[in-house]
Amino acid sequence: MKHLFKLFALVLVVGLALSSTAWGQHKKWTGTAGDGLWATAANWSPSGAPVGTDTVVIDNSVAAGSFTVTLPSDATIRRIRRLYITPNPGNTIILLLPSGNTANPGLGIGDGTANTDDVILNSGAILQNSSGATSGNGIVVDSANSGTFRINNGAKYLHNTARSTAGTVSVLSTATGTETGIYEWDSPGTASVSISASGRTFGTLVLTRTAGAATYTSSGGSPLTIRGNFQINTGVTYSSTMTAAMNIAGNLTNNGTALTIPSGQAVNFNGTSTQTISGSSPITFAGAVTLNNASGLSLSNNVTVNGTLTLTSGKITLGSNNLTLGSAATVSGASAANYVVTNGTGVLTRQGVGANDVLFPVGTSASYLPVTINNAGTADNFSVKVKPTFDFPPVDANRVVNSQWTITEAVAGGSNATVTLQWNGADEATGFDRLAGIEIGRWANSQWVGHGAVYNGGSDPYSASVGGITEFSNFSVGNSGALPVQLASFVGYFVNSNDVTFEWETI
User: Under a CB-based contact definition with an 8 Å cutoff, are residues 57 and 24 in contact?
Assistant: First the structure.
């Protein structure tokens, strides 16, 4: 029995050894040689540069701090089974395929097993492909066997080569925890470069040109999905001719040249936390834009929409920035839950307002308070915002709607419009009586001018309309007498020593 046990143990050890040989071993970076070079045997444990059956681990378990590991500048193809890069928090570890490497590929990674993560970059890791090869990809992840390239949140793949991205972009992982992992183009030179966007899914997508101002283009008829942020950096012109949707779950930042998304490429903001449009250069959406995020969209940049703006879920908050809807733009889905918040200095502008009803779906953070303008005559551009306080107080603050709408016209005196203001019962002051005579007041010449109004009846929300408006400024709604009236003339007549007659006229 004792001999049988020894024989079993020997077979087990031999079996494990054969298995280890077949599948390779873990090669851990130690950096002991101090030169930062992949090819130096002393930088690895066990000693020796990695080979095709090895799983490579580069972390801070032995080598401390931030550092760079550089692959050789030669024409030799190197392959490994898997690659894991895991810095300690606050550190950055870069694995660099240098421009002096001309192999095709310079680094191939794959375990030959479908649906496994051949590459895992954890937070603080950067895999930089600066291949100088004349063809191929530089870095290739095992797409032939459906291996995946996992860029976890806080990690980055940097494509700093003229070579194709086919070896990486087609196998990006969409696992939980990769939503904001960065895939960045930083192509050398200043020639125009086409990025692979059609049918692709990224975490965060970044476009950079450190070599100088240049253009990236994209084309194709399949959707582009960005699960994190889309960032266009200084000096970059992004030119798309895509005919399928762009889906963005994070923020859109344009620090490049003025950006226009083509009419054929609808843009859907569909994140779960508040999204932001920002940057130093304006953004125009020539086609449709949909907001489908209950947490809303905030503007830190001026935006123009020339297609249909669909408010499926959530509010657009302007702050100090402006949202412009072109003359052909339409609005769909505006409601008490989904509208444009204009509490700040930013305005909602609609171009080409003429005879037809044009809705301005504005409101405060608490209330939907839309404006409709029609019968404006010659088409003009109107801008609207609303807030829950008055710049100029009414005579009787207890008998008004607690809102002030500011309406401006691009060409003064060009319209003879009908204006309809809508409010909610919750916006009414306690003494306001809808049935006791309503007027719409306009602030002019340092006083409120009463224009009268037609109360449109119905249930909450309520509205009132007034026609013949040729001048535009601040407007509000109140009971007759609650807003001051304009004194047109005042004359006093001496009748006798005991009597004086006064005559006055108000507007």
Answer: no
